[in-house]
Amino acid sequence: MSSNRKSEFLRSFIWFLIILIFSACSSPQRSELAKEMSLRNNSRITDAIVARGKLIALTNYGSTSYFLYRGQPMGYQYDLLQSFAGYLGVDLEIVVNNSIEGAFQDLQTGKCDLIALDMAVTKDRKKIVDFSDPISQTRQVLVQRKPDNWRKIKTWDEVESHLVRNQINLGGKILHVQKNTFAVERLQTLQQEIGDTIYIVEEPEKTAEDLIKMVAEGDIDYTVCDEHIALINQHFYPDIDISTPVSFPQNVAWAVRKGSSSLQNAINAWLDENNRNNMNQLVYRKYFVNPVYSPQSRSSQRPSGGKGTISVYDDLIKEQSSLLNWDWRLLASLIYQESMFDPTVRSWRGAFGLMQLMPETARKFGVDSTSSPQENIVAGVKFLKILDNQLRKKVSDDMERIKFVLAAYNVGIAHILDAMRLAEKYGKDPSVWTDNVDYFILNKSNPEYYTDTVVRYGYARGEEPYRFVGEILQRYETYRGAGN
Questions:
Q1: Is 338 among the residues known to form the active site?
Q2: Catalytic site residue from 8, 32, 217, 338
Q3: What is the pTM of this model?
């Protein structure tokens, strides 16, 4: 008998024995045996991930998924993926694709093990991929602008009268939405439900966050997106309203290739464990519920230390600013921007103290959240000095370099270097901030720029460092004018 026929005979004999054993078992025993056989037969994908020592997960750039902040990766999906990779005992590698169609293609071709997007579970998508248990729930909401003078309007009912609250009133309106998203499908269905035309403009190059910004700035009147994306952006754009739902709640889940039951089961087991100890809820609250940094909250320019002073830390600030060759009032303005001179402040991103140092940065300078205000300022100034030295060769003018240092302190030097490379590529001066590099950091949330070949560090919410620099310098002039 040939070796091939022997192998075939052996496999057939083994399966015959399994069937005999299976038939002899009682019903509960058969159920357990079937479960065990299923787990063994479908363990290959998870085994391959563990053997590789690395989980390859696809997500997208955005403030609700994945971004770099002061050199550290962050984001709701990123935090969850780190937790799941830890559960498997492997490292995490992120693959970025902001196109849902592209994400499905990357999954099918094996470029990634799973898709972790803010993706609603739909019947059509179930035909293409298998979904995990729900990660969270969301619904589609209308994003619209409050009336220009809404803060001065005496009653909220008056504000409400300017807003769309009944979906029927969307008839005849123009809504801009991200192409190939559930928002398009929902609006098409809503047209049928209200018996009127909704003019749907599909935007192939815009993200949901781009469209929210356009609503906030008055470029368009309406968009529709997932509620949790709207929630985090409402912190940055307080003039928008997101309280009108246009869909029922939907499950949001991760996707794996069809038939990848072992990976699907592993995700579900991890979810079950995290749900029992509320870890997923804590991550959700970190990004979508707790207040995030809003430039408006730091816009006050009033000195806070009494007549002739800025703060109770003036003497320390004067001493430390000399190490930077900065006017001490400039350093004071930075500290006010970061913490409003409150040493107990801790941000949603984990930054702490007067200088709002990130934990990883703080460790490099030997401080932590228990360190004194003096130690926090000393560490922050050392960090500023390092940024200044890193930028000195690229920006020789001392006053101009301050703007770059401030921006790098806020968002991380990697994003500033990206913006400088973009400025050079598009014919702007990479050593000048205003109307040159600041334009590209402001637009680093735009796929046209953060996917450019000269960009190495991807997406950034550029409006934050853009405002950060402007507000600090404006407050600095106020401090100087007040004779402090």
A1: yes
A2: 338
A3: 0.62
